[in-house]
Amino acid sequence: MSTKKNIYFCTKFRIVNRQVIMQFTRALFFLAVLVLIQPVFLTASGHAEHASDSTESTQVANQEPAQEGMSMKQEIKAHIQHHLQDGHDFHLYTDTETNTHVGFPLLVILLDDGIQVFSSSRFHHGESVAESNGNFYALHHGKVYKTDAAGTFEMHDGHVHNEKPLDFSITKNVFSIMAFALILILLFTGAARSYKKSLVPSGSARFLEPLIIFVRDEIAIPNIGEKHYKRFMSYLLTVFFFIWLVNLFGLTPLGINVTNSISVTFALAVMTFVITQFSGKKEYWKHIFWMPGVPVPMKILLAPIELLGVFIKPFALLIRLYANITAGHIVLMSLIGLMFIFHSWIGSTLSFGLSVFISFIELLVAALQAYIFTMLTALYFGSAVAEHEDH
Amino acid sequence: MEIPAIVGAGLVVIGVGIGIGRIGGSAMDAIARQPEATNKIQTAMLIAAALIEGIGFAALFAV
Amino acid sequence: MEKLIEQFSVGLFFWQTILFLVLVFILKKYAWKPILDSVSEREDTIRESLESAEKAKKDLTELQSKNESLIIEAKIERDALLKEAREIKDKIVSDAKGEAKEEADKIVQAAHAAIEAQKAGAIAEMKSEMASLSISIAEKIIRKELSSDEQQKSLANELVADLKLN
């Protein structure tokens, strides 16, 4: 009887699965195309950007001295650096010939002398000093510093010592997060709406439902347990889909890198940490401070280690996500850069092929990191709410 | 003579590489032996690998 | 490590936390809850309908076996009824036969008795007739032949010869 039921579920799942795989393949193909055209896009913008940097940066006083004959290697390095950084405007592409920047300015919000709000277009892509209510601000390596009207930076051994106002700007990453939040809300409320008509999913829900069930059945229930998992589902699902979507968009030529900013992963890890501690039950704290089943001296020895573990766990979580995505981006961009360093059709073709290959691996990593982050988060929640542990 | 920190990081990365390699290899063996437990083994493998990977990253970023 | 700390941006952390929490709450209210509810509702429906189908199947087989036993019972009853009927019929027939025979026997006996009686009557009548006849004969002989002895004798013999009964 039960086997029959299982078979029924299996065949049903298989049918759903096939449709899902079809849709997934389509989505993957679309992403692959995006990834494939990325090298072209990035290199074009890379060239352009640097050229504009080297010609225009002299306008800002004390900015890094322009190097006319900057080598290709340095140029690529600078471009990768730029790519990994957050920015105050949404910069897509620069045309060197006409020196036009394609993109749009964002809102700069500074907590300095009250609240200063102005458009990032006043910085002119870091080329000029912005004035707001009698205060002057300039950009250095993507960060806002308080300067005088001329935009002077006090430099000591390569570091800027100007005052740094608290920067709550809507940067490129903040803007992207807002956009992703909007995408997620539209996507999933749309999916939720399709359930109102009938219990059988239709449209996007058909693709999203197996993923939601995957998070529930493969991540939440095995790690947290049938009894408590429902409380954490919202957080787990949101984390999973947010990280996945953000990672995937990081691979598109839009140049969005939300998950490779440490602040974002830090925020996520802090939320996991806070939820874990607040849902920690008696057993959880007992296992940290007074480990049952070991002799007393060991208990005293274990308590600080366990306590340290409480903080190391979320720390590893934030570093893992950040480092994986950053490393992936660096490797990918370096391979793309190699194409221009080789200057021969064999080497460039090879590194092109390799960059395509790495792009596909990054597609996997994008999902894998979302999975691991969610999985470990669920594991920590599970250890917090566990009523009896089998040690 | 002082050994640069990056050498230590490199050593840690070697260790992490060996560790994750062993996890992967053992997981392969386990899957070959019990293909029906593939899902469970994969999950356990990913968690273990992720935990070790965390140490590697910590070492790299501590430099 | 310093590089990481240097990269850390309070603004981005702030925005990420705020936006993410808002995202969690909006999605919880408008997406996760309805989706998970309908998914579990559907799973329950599937489970229930499977169970009820299983139950219906069981009921059906039960009903079938019940029907079968009913049919068998009915058959047995019918057979018993038929047997009884046959027995009754046989009994009726045999009873009727016995009665008829008795009746017939009675009739035959009566007939016999009647015959016997008539026979006895006839014999008695004949006897009396014969007696009167013999007396009349004897009278005649006595009247006529009493003249001569011889003649009387021959006549008596003659008469006796004639009077052979039947």
Provide a short characterization of the protein structure.
The complex is a heterotrimer of chains A (391), B (63) and C (166). Chain A is built from 9 helices and 10 strands. With 391 residues, chain A is mainly α.
Walkthrough of the structure:
The complex is a heterotrimer of chains A (391), B (63) and C (166). Chain A has helices at 2-56, 72-84, 172-197, 204-224, 229-250, 262-278, 282-289, 296-342, 345-385, and strands at residues 89-95, 100-105, 107-111, 115-119, 130-132, 135-140, 143-147, 155-156, 159-160, 166-167. In chain A, the strands form four sheets. Chain A has a three-stranded antiparallel sheet, with no helix packed on it. Chain A has a three-stranded antiparallel sheet with strand order 5-6-7, with no helix packed on it. The relative contact order of chain A is 0.10. With 391 residues, chain A is mainly alpha-helical. Residues 1-15 and 39-68 of chain A have low confidence and may be disordered. Chain B has 63 residues and is an all-alpha fold. Chain B has one domain: F1F0 ATP synthase subunit C (F1FO ATP Synthase, Up-down Bundle). In chain B, helix 1 runs antiparallel to helix 2 (38-62). Chain C has 166 residues and is an all-alpha fold. Chain C has one domain. Helix content of chain C is 94%, strand content 0%. Chain C is built from three helices and no strands. The longest helix of chain C has 136 residues, at 10-145. Chain C starts with a helix and ends with a helix. Classes of the chains: A mainly alpha (391), B mainly alpha (63), C mainly alpha (166). Chain A binds chain B through residues 218, 222, 315-317, 319-320, 323, 368, 371-372, 375-376, 379, and chain B through 39, 43, 46-47, 50-51, 53-55, 57-58, 60-61.
